[in-house]
Amino acid sequence: MATTFVDRVVLHVSAGDGGHGVASVRREKFKPLGGPDGGNGGRGGSVVLRVDAQSTTLLDYHRHPHRSAPNGKPGAGDERNGADGEDLVLPVPDGTVVKDADGRIVVDLVGEGSEHVIARGGRGGLGNKALSSPRRKAPGFALLGEPGDVLDVTLELKSLADVALIGFPSAGKSSLVSVLSAARPKIADYPFTTLVPNLGVVTAGDERYTVADVPGLIPGAHEGRGLGLEFLRHVERCSVLVHVVDCATLEPGRDPMTDLDVIENELSLYVPDADLGGRPLAERTRVVVLNKADVPEAQELAEMVRPDLEARGLEVHVVSAVARTGLRELSFALARLVAQARAEAPEVAPRRIVLRPRAVDDSGFVIRKEQVGDGVAYRVVGERPTRWVRQTDFSNDEAVGYLADRLNRLGIEDALVKAGAVAGDTVLIGAADDAVVFDWEPTMAAGAELLGPRGSDLRVDPNERRTAREKREAARDRYVARQATQAELEAERRAGHWATARGDDED
User: Fold this and answer.
1) What are 244-303's pLDDT values in tens digits?
2) What residue spans of 392-450 are helical by DSSP H?
3) What are the residue boundaries of the OCT domain, all occurrences included (predicted)?
4) Domain edges within the chain
5) Model pTM?
6) Residue 125 near residue 145, CB atoms below 8 Å
7) What is the CATH T-level fold of the domain 163-344, as seen in this structure?
8) Of 133, 137, 41, which is closest to residue 393 (Cα–Cα)?
9) Which residues are annotated as a binding site?
10) Binding site residues for GTP, as ranges?
11) Annotated binding site for Mg(2+)
């Protein structure tokens, strides 16, 4: 039989990478040094999960579990920025729970239009136009785009129903849903006919609620026997649990009281997700429906066990889905209990936007000393250093120098010295599985600073190009100095401190 309903999948998502910035120089006639004009790269597309009313199953993601958003476009010359990658929006059913690879709940998507960015696209790299400054007139490099997030998440669908029909296989749950609502589940006379939860909408007076037909439970369902573990999650959100008991079963060892105790034990052993704020199943409102009362022996048995069930404080209804008896009273009773549960439900507080500014003394990174082989290494952990390393083109010496300047300004070099690092030690920046390794050399003056700041061009540096007024003043100073020197030499000659060659010949 082809699979038509899937309520749990592992989804592999990849956000788009950011486009690279470009290093370009403007070239115009009579302007050989037009300056940098490289554009920025575009942002990579993000992967967004959004609740869609038209989506009822995760089957599409079961068949195609790998989803990727487009990358951002690279920049171009003439200050043209690359286009952003388009976000990939994945529709999911209402009530989808998203978990990370470790099983922790990331988000619970409830309500039409609710969405969550599960994988964020990478930033685009800056072009050399954006990197230019009064001190860096002509950068010969650009920054690379950041890679997008790549991760695996688990999607679990937990039905949003008010009432859950639970019980042994072939107890008549599907038949009951079909006569209470317009749902048309598969009905047959063999166990485990229902393989997927069926939802139906019931209207009783002014109240409207949904009923879920949960596949049959058997002893050990909380451990995965039968279909219990796969579909007990669909009971978690239901406020009213209805025990559908088969009073006409001929199986040995089966009777209404025993069936009820077995199912109650399975509910008490099932542990719902505490992060969702759900109550234990044992604390939900209970109703017992003694079904198949159209059979005379079943009618007698139902009347026999009814006082015992009511003595436990349970509300009991004797019905027949085939003869359609007792259904009106049952539907109105369920409507009353659902309305009561909705009134008692805590009010959902609006989501607040929490701002967490960085502390004043937060440097943005930490240095960790690690044992690597026979020696030690120093790992730099921080968002900004990791991002800067990813954006650096290590084939460009100027870009590497720019990275060194940024890390030095951030205070990493001083922190390494305080941590005990010496020249030649191994320094790692980035995640443990994708770190960039450096042989650390402390910054030292080597005469290169005499050529000007990194990324500057002395030919276009205004500090080296004098104005016309400055040139006139310098020429006047040279003229005055020359006149003073000539007057001094003439005075010395007349005083007889030295004689010309012609005067020596006459003597």
Assistant:
1) 888 887 777 778 888 888 888 877 777 666 555 556 777 788 888 888 888 888 888 888
2) 397-410, 412-419
3) 357-442
4) 1-157, 163-344, 366-463, 467-501
5) 0.69
6) yes
7) Rossmann fold (3.40.50)
8) 41
9) 167-174, 192-196, 213-216, 291-294, 320-322
10) 167-174, 192-196, 213-216, 291-294, 320-322
11) 174, 194
